[in-house]
Structure formats: C-alpha cells, structure tokens
Write a structure and sequence with these properties.
This protein is of the alpha/beta class. Helices cover 43% and strands 17% of the residues. Helix 10 links the parallel strand 10 and strand 11. The longest helix has 25 residues. The protein is flat, with a radius of gyration of 30 Å. The structure holds guanosine-5'-diphosphate and magnesium ion.
Length: 474
C-alpha cells in the first residue's frame, strides 16, 4: 500500500517559496531545494563554473541554468550548508525570473534530476525535525505568513523568537522540580531530605497553575488577532450604512432617506489597533409583517445571521425620532442571539447633530440591561467616530501590552487546558491524602502535555495535521 507520511522520506525536495507563477509572471521566483542531494542537483543545473574547488556558501552568485542542452534562465543562486540553513540540511535557493515557463522548466529539470516537489510545510517540518526550531516556533512561522494585521504579525514574530516556548520550558522545569521531589524514595520518608511535604507540593502546583491561567485567559484576545467580525445592525434608516461609510471614510454602502435600501450584507475590511476586522452593514431589522416584500425579508434574515456570526455588534439607534416598540423588540432579540454566540454589544446612538429626543440610558432601561455600553455619534458629521473606534478596541481587548504572551492557536489552548486540568486534579488528590507517588504518576501527564506543545512525543499523523496547514514552499 502507498503510505506517504511526509516525515519518513528524507530525500531531496524542492518548492517555490514565492507565490505560484501566473501568466503575467513576477520579477523573481525563488525555488528552494533542500536535502542531502540539493547541492549536486543544483550543480547539475548550473552551467557555469561557479565554485571551482569550494562551494561559496551563503554568497549570492550569478548562474546560468541549463538542462539537456537547453538554457533555462540566468539567475541568482545561494548555497547553505547543513546545519546552517533553514531546514538544517544542505539547501540551495535559485532566484529565477518569475515567469511561468522559466519556473516550470526548472521544476521539471529538478524532478528529472531526482528531487521531488515538497509537501506543504515540509521545509519547516524538516527544520523542526532537525531541531532548528521547536514546534511552537514552527507554528509561529505559519502564523507570520498568515498575519493580516500588525498585531498578529508582532505576536507571531515574538513567538518565533521563543517567548511562548521559553514560558512553557520554565513551567515544565517548575513542574519537574515538584515531580522529582514527590518521587524521592517515598517508602523511607526519613531518608528523603530532598522530598517535599504534601502542603508544599500543593502550593507549588497552585503557583504553576496560576502562571498558566493568564495564558489561557489571553486566548480570547489571541484568537481575535486573526480577525473579528463586526456587524452593524438596527432598524431601517437609523444610519447603519452611513456609519459603515464613516468608519471606512469612503462611500461604500448606499445611503438614502428611504427605509429598506440595504438588502444584501455589505462587507468591508478595516483594522482596529492592528487587528483586521470584517465590517458588515446589514439590512434594517423589522418585525415580521405582511407588508415586507420578499427581497427585504431575505435581507432581514441575513442580518440576523450576521448577528449570530459576529464577535461584536454595533447596534445603531436614531435618537432624533421617538423610541419605538420595535426598538425594544429588536434589541431584545439581538441580545438573546448575542448571548448565545458570546458576542459583545455596543449601543450606538446616532444623529447627534440633530435634536436628541431621548438619552442612551433609555434603551438600557428598555431591555433591562443597564450594563450595555454606548457611544453617541453622528455618522454624518463624524462626531464620536473616534470614540467608537477606541471603544471597539477596548471591548475587543485589542490594546495589547508588548510583553504579554497571547495564545493564538487552538492546539496551544487545548494542551494548556489539559495541563491545568491534570494539575488541578493532582492538587485535589494530594489534599485528600493520595500518596505522593500515585499523584506523581498522574502529574507526569501534565509534563507530557507541556512537552507536546514544544513538539515532543507527537506522532507523524499529528505532525501531518499541523504542517499540512502551511503553504507549499515553507
Ligand atoms: N442628520 C443626520 N442624518 C443621518 C445621520 N446618519 C444617517 N443619516 C441619514 O439618515 C438616512 C438613512 O441613512 P442610512 O445610512 O441609509 O441608514 P440605514 O438604513 O440604517 O443604512 C439618510 O438620509 C442619511 O443621510 C446622522 O448622523 N445625522
Ligand atoms: Mg443601509
């Protein structure tokens, strides 16, 4: 049977490190070759006498690539010798012209010379297997490549440099210290000067889990770095589309004075504090009524769907007209949906440039939730828009301090939760006088979870799953 777990084959691989070539082409395409045969494979392609006696490692050289008697390109070449390369193997980078024909012909030649196309993430996987980086750092590279906003970029770079790895390593050392003292020859307590009193063990474990908790709490923010959804909802004509336009500082959504203008959800990208957000302008919400025609009814259905998918809901009101029954019904419905999905709600009182008929506290009263935060704005004049922006940043916790570590991956969160769960169980067990050696056996499970974070003890299938999310050529 054909089994192809990537980790097993350590042959010579190649991959395009730049985006796939298009018909238009690009200035440069970088083909990376890694593996024991990379230097000889590249040598077979390079026509000119590039290195004489010695390979010029880490120097950018000009080369003519030629295969089966045909010149393919004039390009740049860099050699890296193991282990001083990205993968830890011999690596050659060919900086060819980024044209479709050039890249295809070089790739075909590489295959004929015995290299094979790399799987997604295979370069980084090799780097991990060769201990050039730990698994957390490897994952941070995928996060860095995928970063769409400055905050995600910063966090990925920090984790690449080892902030999270160091933290996990320290936690693990502390855990092992307790473990080793719990395991000291328990049959002869008088002969265990290095042993630990149960109370002290419980205290130390408590401190470790106290250190893990802030990391777990950071997940709520960390996962937002990839982007969040911000839905603008409200009754017809309150100024939802005007608000979208004001936030974007352009005329994206159609604004008219007649209700029911917006039907399709209009979406736009916007950054808040370096975090990308998808801003969604929706059709005005109305309670079902026979007079609503099909298109508008469908629009309203879609609005509710956005409420369910949003991380934050901007609920817009027009304070220049009397507050209506429909208002409270819609707010109440939105609250129910938001509670279910865990979305936050910001009340936006719009049209502050006109005479105000009621105060924001009125809505809070209406739905009996005085805790809902609000801002007062005019989408027309722009008044209050800056406050709205900072309120969003605040509510989404986007003001991230530079030395805080954020969890950004589900895998990391799951393993840290597992670690803390085991530590809590063991603490409880110890307090109930479970023998230390029995507790220690269980506690090793927490050590294994921390190890798995760094990439220890993972099988090929686990690694397949993690690295398959990478792009080709990385
Ligand atoms: N005076 C004033 N008019 C506004 C403001 N925001 C929106 N409008 C007007 O209200 C009407 C409805 O606006 P629109 O953005 O289409 O509302 P939507 O139906 O909620 O999307 C339009 O005539 C807008 O010009 C505001 O802050 N002040
Ligand atoms: Mg609209």
């Amino acid at each position: 049977m054909h089994s192809c777990s990537m980790g097993i084959d350590s042959g010579t691989i190649f991959g395009l490190a730049t985006p796939p070539p298009s018909v238009q082409g690009s200035g440069i395409g970088i083909i990376r070759i890694s593996g024991p045969g990379s230097i000889s494979v590249a040598g077979n392609l390079i026509k000119n006498d590039l290195y004489g006696d010695e390979i010029p490692f880490r120097e950018f050289k000009l080369a003519t690539l030629s295969f089966e008697g045909k010149d393919l390109d004039r390009c740049g070449v860099i050699f890296f010798n193991a282990p001083n390369s990205y993968t830890g193997e011999d690596v050659v980078e060919l900086h060819v012209h980024g044209g479709l024909a050039v890249i295809r012909s070089v790739e075909n030649a590489l295959i004929k010379l015995g290299a094979r196309p790399a799987e997604p993430g295979e370069f980084t996987r090799r780097a991990f297997l060769n201990a050039r980086l730990d698994l957390l750092q490897a994952e941070s590279i995928a996060a860095l490549i995928g970063a769409a906003g400055g905050a995600a970029q910063r966090e990925a770079l920090r984790q690449r440099s080892g902030t999270l790895s160091d933290k996990v390593t320290i936690l693990r050392a502390q855990l092992r210290d307790v473990l080793s003292r719990m395991e000291v020859d328990f049959d002869y307590p008088e002969e265990r000067p290095d042993g630990i009193e149960t109370d002290e063990a419980v205290g130390s474990l408590k401190r470790i889990s106290n250190d893990i908790n802030p990391l777990l709490e950071s997940w709520d923010r960390g996962r937002m770095l990839k982007g969040f959804r911000l839905a603008i909802i409200g009754l017809p004509n309150v100024g939802k589309s005007s608000l979208l336009n004001a936030l974007l500082m352009e005329d994206r959504a159609i604004v008219t004075s007649s209700p029911g203008t917006t039907r399709d959800v209009v979406s736009a990208s916007l950054a808040f504090g370096g975090v990308p957000a998808e801003l969604l302008d929706t059709a005005g919400l109305r309670l079902s009524d026979d007079s609503i025609e099909t298109a508008e009814a469908e629009g309203i259905k879609r609005s509710w769907r956005e409420v369910e998918r949003a991380h934050l809901i901007l609920m817009v009101f027009d304070t220049s007209i009397p507050i209506s029954e429909e208002n409270s019904a819609v707010v109440a419905e939105a609250r129910v949906k938001a509670d279910k999905s865990g979305a936050a709600i910001l009340l936006v009182c719009n049209k502050s440039d006109l005479d105000t008929l009621w105060e924001p506290s009125k809505i809070a009263e209406l739905v009996d939730s005085p805790e809902l935060p609000h801002v007062i704005i005019s989408a027309k004049t722009g008044e209050g828009i800056d406050q709205l922006r900072s309120r969003v940043r605040e509510m989404m916790n986007l003001d991230i301090s530079p030395d805080e570590i954020l969890l950004t991956e589900v895998r990391h969160r799951a393993l840290l939760e597992e670690t803390n769960g085991i530590i809590d169980d063991v603490r409880k067990g110890l307090s109930e006088e479970i023998p230390q050696d029995v507790a220690a056996t269980e506690l090793w499970g927490a050590d294994r979870s921390l190890g798995r974070l760094l990439g220890e003890g993972l099988g090929a299938a686990d690694l397949d799953e993690i690295f398959s999310r990478f792009c080709i050529g990385k």
